[in-house]
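anyone seen this seq b4? input:
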Amino acid sequence: MDKAFEIAVYKDDTDLFDIVEQMQLEHYRTGLIRNKEELHRRIKSGEMQLLLFDENMNDENWRLGIKTLSKIRRYSNIPIIVVSSVKQDYVKIIALNSGADDFVERDCNSLELSARITGQLRRYHQLRSTKRVYRVGALALDAERRIVSVNEREVSLTPTEYEIIKLLMENKGQAFSNEEIYERIWHMSAIQPENIIAVHMNHIRGKIEPDPKNPIYLKVIWGVGYKME
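predicted toks r here
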C-alpha cells in the first residue's frame, strides 16, 4: 500500500479483511494490523479514520480486548466497530462502555456491515458549514468546529457521542425515543436499540454531567426517551 489507509482491521482471525476490501467503500483503503504496538502507532499517526476491532471476546480475550479499547479512547476519538462472535449482551455493553461506537456480530450480513461502516465514516468526516453554537446552560456545542465543551472546557467525545449530543441540542426540549435516536444516528432501522442507546447515554453523562447520577443536561423522559433541557 503506497498511501496511508483509512480503514484498519485489527487482528482478523477470520476473513473480515478480505470482505472489507471487496466492499470498496467510497474508495477507502484498508489495512490489516496484527499486534497492539502497530495498532497504537497507526492510530496516533492519523493514518486511519475507522477501526474494525476483530476480537473473539471469548474467555480471557474479551478482557484484553476491553483493555485495548479503553487505552485507545484515552488518546483518540477514531470510530471503532467491534466485530465479534460473542452474543452475550453484557460483553457488548462493556465494549460500548469502554469506547466502541458499535458492536457487530461476526456472522452479520456484509451489507449490514457495509452500512455501519459507511455511517460511522460519514459522521467522522461530516463538517458543518454553519457557525451556530448551541447552548444548554454551561454545555456548548460549536457545530463548525465540532467541539463540545462544559464551562469552556472541551470534552473528548467519539463521533457517535457527538452526533447524539448534537441531535438533542439542536432540538432542545424535544424528547426522542430510543428508536428515533438510533435511526437518526445510525441511519438504519432500529431493532431493540435500548441497550446500545443506554450505553452511549451513560457514557455521555459521564463526560458532560457534574454528577452523572443526577443529570442536569441529558434527561430521561420515562416512557418516551431522552432530551436536553
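The first strand starts at residue 7 and ends at 10. Helices lie at 16-23, 36-45, 61-73, 89-97, 110-125, 159-170, 178-186, 194-208. kinda curious what u guys think
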